[in-house]
């Protein structure tokens, strides 16, 4: 395994290098990265709830925002940063996810927003989102002629 990036030669490699250079310039100048990442989640459904478990290493609970958009949609977003206390050396490889993230989950059943709960322990976000009866009813709309 080499710590030096390999040169990829292909028709789009120049575009990729330009994007990498631009992103590096922007992140150095503004102190943040353009890139968002998508954390991995597992969802398990039981008879009465959905159980979510997501990997969020390095994320603090105060950097998380969890909200319901409606009776079927859950938004999880947040931010994590690399510890930048050391100014020694430069990064040869940086594979850990840092920056902003967002996940949106659309559930097939209506969810009980009031009874949902979440916990963050050892870099894993665990949520239980209970199901509820849908409050919407079908309504037929007559068409005027």
Automatic annotation (TrEMBL):
<dbReference type="Pfam" id="PF00011">
    <property type="entry name" value="HSP20"/>
</dbReference>
<feature type="domain" description="SHSP">
    <location>
        <begin position="32"/>
        <end position="145"/>
    </location>
</feature>
<dbReference type="InterPro" id="IPR008978">
    <property type="entry name" value="HSP20-like_chaperone"/>
</dbReference>
<comment type="similarity">
    <text>Belongs to the small heat shock protein (HSP20) family.</text>
</comment>
<protein>
    <recommendedName>
        <fullName>SHSP domain-containing protein</fullName>
    </recommendedName>
</protein>
<dbReference type="InterPro" id="IPR002068">
    <property type="entry name" value="A-crystallin/Hsp20_dom"/>
</dbReference>
<dbReference type="InterPro" id="IPR031107">
    <property type="entry name" value="Small_HSP"/>
</dbReference>
<keyword id="KW-0346">Stress response</keyword>
């Amino acid at each position: 395994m080499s710590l030096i990036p390999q040169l990829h030669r292909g028709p789009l490699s120049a575009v990729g290098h330009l994007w990498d250079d631009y992103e590096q310039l922007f992140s150095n100048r503004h102190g943040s990265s353009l890139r968002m990442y998508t954390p991995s989640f597992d969802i398990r459904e039981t008879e009465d709830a959905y159980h979510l478990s997501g990997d969020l290493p390095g994320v603090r609970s105060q950097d998380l925002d969890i909200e319901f958009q409606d009776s079927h949609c859950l938004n999880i977003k947040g931010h994590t940063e690399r510890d930048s206390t050391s100014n020694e050396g430069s990064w040869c490889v940086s594979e850990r996810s840092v920056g902003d993230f967002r996940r949106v989950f659309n559930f097939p059943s209506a969810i009980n927003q009031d009874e949902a709960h979440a916990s963050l322990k050892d870099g894993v976000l665990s949520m239980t989102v209970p199901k509820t009866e849908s409050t919407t009813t079908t309504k037929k709309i007559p068409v005027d002629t």
